[in-house]
Here is the input.
Amino acid sequence: DAKTTQPPSMDCAEGRAANLPCNHSTISGNEYVYWYRQIHSQGPQYIIHGLKNNETNEMASLIITEDRKSSTLILPHATLRDTAVYYCIVRAGGRASGSRLTFGEGTQLTVNP
Amino acid sequence: DAGVIQSPRHEVTEMGQEVTLRCKPISGHDYLFWYRQTMMRGLELLIYFNNNVPIDDSGMPEDRFSAKMPNASFSTLKIQPSEPRDSAVYFCASTTVLGTQYFGPGTRLLVL
Here is the structure.
């Protein structure tokens, strides 16, 4: 699986949009971009994933650049409960991958009142 | 669905004792993963199963660690004998192929 690079920490004001970047310059054609988050002391929680098109769900939006070498997770209206470590993960598609995930160090997002 | 269930939630034991962690995956999920999280090493995959068969155990730190999945609804991770450096949070996760991994709440293990 391709390696990802994320800033170690970011701050965001409550109510504002939080934009979390991720670089995955070595991503290959069949690899998906996944985002998980981990709120302190809890298990990681799935947020969103995409292959090449932008995606949106009730939690967030995922913007993937046209060359797929980077992506941005957007939390449109951050709340204090969004304070967590956010992981960007590249995962191969298909059965051979076994659905495994490799977690990096992630970005600690702190939402301030 | 109750999600992935892990037990116990907390375990404190003394060095040399056997520790058994338990996991019940989400019904219908045919992949099960065991992870360990520490401050030093982050979240690392130990082993995963597909249809109850271990597929990749390359992350298991040493022979003191073993994992089994006797049926589709139950898995154990055993440490024997335990050592202080095994202190960590152990997570279990399950999914279907190409699906989203759902994580349990974790077991906090402290080995004194």
